[in-house]
Amino acid sequence: xxxxxxxxxxxxxxxxxxxxxxxxxxxxxxxxxxxxxxxxxxxxxxxxxxxxxxxxxxxxxxxxxxxxxxxxxxxxxxxxxxxxxxxxxxxxxxxxxxxxxxxxxxxxxxxxxxxxxxxxxxxxxxxxxxxxxxxxxxxxxxxxxxxxxxxxxxxxxxxxxxxxxxxxxxxxxxxxxxxxxxxxxxxxxxxxxxxxxxxxxxxxxxxxxxxxxxxxxxxxxxxxxxxxxxxxxxxxxxxxxxxxxxxxxxxxxxxxxxxxxxxxxxxxxxxxxxxxxxxxxxxxxxxxxxxxxxxxxxxxxxxxxxxxxxxxxxxxxxxxxxxxxxxxxxxxxxxxxxxxxxxxxxxxxxxxxxxxxxxxxxxxxxxxxxxxxxxxxxxxxxxxxxxxxxxxxxxxxxxxxxxxxxxxxxxxxxxxxxxxxxxxxxxxxxxxxxxxxxxxxxxxxxxxxxxxxxxxxxxxxxxxxxxxxxxxxxxxxxxxxxxxxxxxxxxxxxxxxxxxxxxxxxxxxxxx
Amino acid sequence: xxxxxxxxxxxxxxxxxxxxxxxxxxxxxxxxxxxxxxxxxxxxxxxxxxxxxxxxxxxxxxxxxxxxxxxxxxxxxxxxxxxxxxxxxxxxxxxxxxxxxxxxxxxxxxxxxxxxxxxxxxxxxxxxxxxxxxxxxxxxxxxxxx
Lengths: 512, 146
Hints:
The complex is a heterodimer. Chain A is built from 19 helices and 2 strands. By secondary structure, chain A is mostly helical.
């Protein structure tokens, strides 16, 4: 068994507890613990993505072997999809921690920040690694509860209101998920994802199956903020401290929402066409509505938060198209292209949206406002922030040669090849509106005004913040390489195969 | 916070120790009888909270106590994690492996590392519930001070 798998959860947990014990006595120890933990996790996640390549490695916690072919212990499963998500979580986490070095020093109680940050990372790593439904729920709660606390980190009126809303809707999501898990356990008598698929059989009881699917879809949809369930996201993501907004928007909604939806609906349930159409519709809806809600915003972080909804819509829509084709059992190559587009956009969105939130944090750090109308002419004072945010804006609006262009192109091509012309049209229009809204962001924040340079004018942000932003900016450019067939075959192809063919996921777990 | 009357104080004095011992009993018999780390930890925390409620918190240094309970809490859970990680270097080298000898079923010292998990989880739960209580108390003191 691969000994790295439990370390993804154990190391950040240990980091969090060590921070709380020693952080009070040794100055600045907390930030170095956070950095070392995330650096270690990032390195082992890169190692995993290189070594995993199409295999599924199963880790039986406590060494509990299956009895009569029935898995009884806790299973942690690492496959290519998991490895991709682990890379996203830990890379963005590492950069966000490094960014926090200076950003969080303006708040009090830094200890709690780094401890909660490590706990959140542990929870997300646990969600993507977990091989059974109940542990997904447990780790989901770890990451969700620490993110509630982190959203309220500033303890201002606005933050408390946002976190309250987030907690109520997050609690509702957990309730729906737990209810769904209960219903599954009632029929299947097991909680292991692979075993549930086998236990429910090829002809499940229709009403029960549909009820469970709807409960889980709405529960995880709330976590992923797909459109009818999105109400908490703009408040929570805009009032959190910026590195946390980057983590929430760049990582949490993917690891706790989209990833679980993908895993459950491809690998645990038998895909039915009506559910696939529902998921595609929800995706298209969030894509279109999200961008229209975004364009009128004047608060930078609210604007970015609404764009998260819209960009996640692309991912869900594209994956939904793949699901429809898999359910109809036609054109497998188009289905795999659609899923590839979705996953590619998921990776890209993590890079550019985290970068945009870090940019917003840098602006707020220097001039103390998030309102676009109150800023202007910042490009001459903050060249690094300005140029990286330009890269990210171009990437999110889909301008070549940045990564967003290629993933949107693949999504649109896949939609056309699957003969969903309307979806392709919506995707193009949404992309144009996204461009318009980021033009607005660029113009009002960085150009627009001619301001005379004097000693009162804002300076460039300190080194840790610049370094994180520049790294993410380079990543935005480098991730375009995923479009090359050689790179795609290593990273994306095995993950798509696992999703398309759930037998590949089930057999290694049940040892068939 | 003010304390209560002499009758309450005296009764609490008599009861608190018994409650504490009962919590310890539940924790160490976790692998034999119903209950365990969580249930016992709550009872142990209850004995402390009972004393604070009866005697009031005026003579306590609340923030110092809270620091102490936070550290105990984190130490407890860190030790539990260390035992789980120790499974990765002994025996069949698996996370959460039960690496101590299992002993005879039904005896107090048996079941390998399970009693140790119970003890550390009990420590963690007792300290964390006390921390929550103290945090609420500190919050209340601050509000009344304004």
